[in-house]
Amino acid sequence: MKYAIVTGTSRGLGEDIARLLLEHGVHVIGISRSPSQALVNVAQKNHSTYTQLHGDLGNINELEQMNTQLKEYLLHRSITELYLVNNAAVVQPVNQANQIAANNLSYHFHVNAIAPMALTNSLIDYANNNGIPMIGLTVTSGAAERPTYGWSAYCSSKASINMYTRTVALEQEQLGSKNKIVAFSPGIMDTEMQESIRSSSKDEFADIERFVAFKQNNQLRSTKNVAAILVELILEKNQIENGKIYNIGDFL
Predict the structure, then answer these.
(1) What's the pLDDT tens digit per position in 65-104?
(2) How many angstroms separate the CA atoms of 37 and 52, rounded?
(3) Which of 47, 78, 199, 240 is the most buried (most CB within 10 A)?
(4) Positive or negative: CA dihedral 124, 127, 131, 135
(5) Nearest by Cα to 185 from 123, 100, 252, 128
(6) What is the per-residue pLDDT for 212?
(7) Which residues contact 156 (CB under 8 A, 6 or more apart)?
């Protein structure tokens, strides 16, 4: 049976990814701070299962607990293929770098970088120990390659994800494993993160007017359309290029 772990499933892209995987008959373990009865219903209709793990990825103790729970849960399942989609992320703090407090910076990196890395590391270990091929995908951003005023934290955390992806993929290739580790940049989508960005001040985020225009001009992509492309990518595992940073533009 196929199992997928998806973070940030309570809404937006994460919820749509989980829904599509369930519709493909994949059993999904969702990690978020809020439950989703809608995904439970989708699972029942498609003879699959949706299991919810509650926790804050920005809290290292809760992250370690979730990692333990995941391994215990998977241990008792008959798994043929394993997927991990690290989708959960935050954009805050948005401000000039010298105005960002250390505790806010720490939380940001725990959610955007440490949690995806820790989950991927743990599941690679599980997959290798149990002879299961694993596909690990982390949602990244064009901000990883492009400095943006007010986004020193966000640009840096996503850049770290890209290099982590390339490095771990290199390791898995040289170790001769069947695991594939990639990242996926979805472009600008109509999400709560975009709402948060548009609520910034001009002093905090110099590009605020451009992002307001994205919404006004209907330039934001639907999370459902992006999720469809992402899910098709990971389910076609033989077509995946290990270590690649995919961009939504590659598929449009």
Answers:
(1) 999 999 999 998 999 999 999 999 999 999 999 999 999 9
(2) 10
(3) 240
(4) negative
(5) 252
(6) 66
(7) none
What is the amino acid identity at position 206?
A
Task: State in words which class domain 2-187+222-251 has.
Answer: alpha beta
Nearest to 167 by CA among 124, 206, 132, 108: 124
Using alpha carbons only, give the angle 34, 139, 9 rounded to the nearest 5 degrees: 15
Residue type, 187: G
Beta bridge mates, 211? none
Q: Could you tell me if 219 and 188 are in contact, meaning their C-beta atoms sit under 8 angstroms apart?
A: yes
Neighbours of 201 (CB within 10 A): 10
Helices (H) and strands (E) in the chain, counts: 9, 7
C-beta pairs of 215-219 under 8 Å, 24+ apart in sequence: 215/190, 219/188
CB 21 within 8 A of CB 4: yes
104-117 pLDDT per residue, tens: 999 999 999 999 99
Task: Judge whether 179 and 133 are in contact, CB under 8 Å.
Answer: yes
In the β-sheet with 180-185, what is the strand arrangement from edge to edge? Answer: 50-54, 27-32, 2-7, 81-86, 134-139, 180-185, 245-247
Task: Please state the pTM of the whole predicted model.
Answer: 0.93
Catalytic residues: 154
Show me where the domains of the chain are located. 2-187+222-251
